[in-house]
Design goal:
alpha/beta, Peroxisomal Thiolase, Chain A, domain 1, 33% helix, globular
């Protein structure tokens, strides 16, 4: 995560909002914002998360044969963020590419890796979700600037003979609803105390109310599809790790699936919405906090621009 914390109180001095309004509508208390004055580019954050994942997995970069990064905010149009991660890790035997699927980018990338392992193309892969959403935020739009943030997370996926791991991943999209959440050309106003931002010539635009209802429905439907595909009931799921977009969306998903919030992991209050970074960041924290035990059935589910949505069921095998 970037070092700089941007609190709701800080935002009160920038736009017509309040800590109470932001908390009530999103559940976010603070978020992390990257800086050009620190080593906090999309690639930098992806690489740091990757080193943490490799250390936890007990493998070296030389063991990797595939790297996939889910991102909509790479440092440059091309080459890919994944190639930059490969360079910095010195993972010479890995092929690398990015996946652009909005906030569902991490799960789309995970599906690519899972399929590659299943068909024998890969044996040891790195999947990263990394974003600098601060670079495309309109800081005069209180409906979006209070939500978005920066961060990265990573996982190692290996081919092993034991049962467990990824049971299935389910992907959906609907391009006819693209205009509910998209990036448009334009340069945004940047507050003086955020001049350290890496501002890109794009602005994020969102139809919040329409997107809210659609997100809950799509997340619920694809979660049920994933559970049914694996012959599981909601009581079988030890932990749901959803995309951290809005606490009310997460609560709506919890209600629809009849899985209590006690079994739904959230850290949105600390980090805001980091798009494709939210699930691997949350998964890492849940694991380090002892919320995941070997043999647990875990549901990962996300929804984002495209529109795209995805769900993955796995048996925790660490």
């Amino acid at each position: 995560m970037p070092q700089r914390i941007l609190s709701n109180k800080d935002l009160e001095s920038m736009v017509d909002t309040s800590d109470e309004w932001i908390m009530r509508r999103s559940g976010i208390k603070e978020r992390r914002i990257s800086s050009t004055e620190q080593e906090e580019t999309t690639t930098d954050m992806a690489v740091k998360a990757s080193w943490d994942a490799l250390e936890m997995a007990g493998i070296s970069p030389g063991s990797l044969d595939m790297i996939v990064v889910g991102t909509v905010t790479p440092d440059r149009q091309f080459p890919s963020a994944a190639c930059m991660v490969q360079r910095d890790l010195k993972a010479e035997d890995a092929f690398a590419f990015d996946v652009s699927a909005g906030c569902a980018g991490f799960l789309y990338a995970l599906a690519m890796v899972d399929n590659a392992i299943q068909c024998g193309m890969s044996k040891c892969a790195l999947v990263v979700g990394a974003e600098r959403l601060s670079s495309i935020v309109n800081w005069e739009d209180r409906g979006t600037c209070v939500l978005l943030a920066d961060g990265a997370g990573a996982v190692v996926v290996q081919s092993k003979p034991q049962e467990g791991g990824i049971l299935s991943t389910h992907l959906k999209s609907d391009g006819t609803a693209w205009d509910l959440l998209y990036a448009s050309y334009g340069n945004a106003y940047t507050p003086e105390f955020l001049k350290c931002l890496d501002q890109k010539p794009f602005l994020l635009k969102m139809e919040g109310n329409k997107l809210f209802k659609r997100a809950i429905r799509c997340l619920s439907d694809i979660s049920r599809e994933a559970l049914e595909h694996n012959g599981l009931e909601n009581d079988n799921i030890a932990l749901v790790v959803p995309h951290q977009a809005n606490i009310r969306i997460i609560q709506g998903l919890s209600d629809n699936l009849e899985i209590p919030m006690e079994r739904v992991y959230t850290n949105i209050h600390k980090y805001g919405n980091t798009s494709s970074g939210t699930i691997p960041i949350a998964l890492n924290e849940a694991n380090r906090e002892g919320r995941l035990k070997k043999g647990d059935q875990v549901l990962l589910v996300s929804f984002g621009a495209g529109l795209t949505w995805a769900a993955s069921v796995l048996t925790w095998s660490m």
